[in-house]
Amino acid sequence: MNGNPIYHLIALGVATVLMVPLPVAMLAGWTPPWLRGQRGGVRLQACGVLAIYAMVLANSLPRIADASFETVMLFTCIGLGFSVVAGVLLLLSALRNARRAGR
């Protein structure tokens, strides 16, 4: 039902390599050069990207485990919740940066 788990493992591995190191470094205090002009919202951006990664985890892990249809749909709804959280965090970051730029 869930297809070949190898494809989901590859996608999860690529998402882990591409999405996790930078936000974790940002939460540890490092700011990338292209974001150094922003005064606020860097941590919110990092949390937003990690929420997107949590969505990827929620959508891929039950498919890798070849879970039942009901379990896959439950985790898909949980992933949708993570995407809403990510959108709110990234929007708050943009509003915070706009407010600080207006001063």
- Average pLDDT metric: 91
Q: Catalogue the unreliable spans.
A: none
How large is the count of helical segments?
4
The coarse overall form would be elongated
Main beta sheet, described? none
Task: Spell the H/E element sequence.
Answer: HHHH
**Residues in β-strands, percent:** under 5%
Distance between the termini: 55 Å
Q: Please bin the fraction of helical residues.
A: over 70%
> Which radius of gyration do the C-alpha atoms yield?
16 Å
* SS class: mainly alpha
Number of strands: 0
Describe this structure in words.
It is a single chain. With 103 residues, this protein is mostly helical. The chain has helices spanning 5-19, 21-27, 42-64, 69-101. The longest helix has 33 residues, at 69-101. It is elongated.
Question: What would the keywords be for this entry?
Answer:
103 residues, mainly alpha
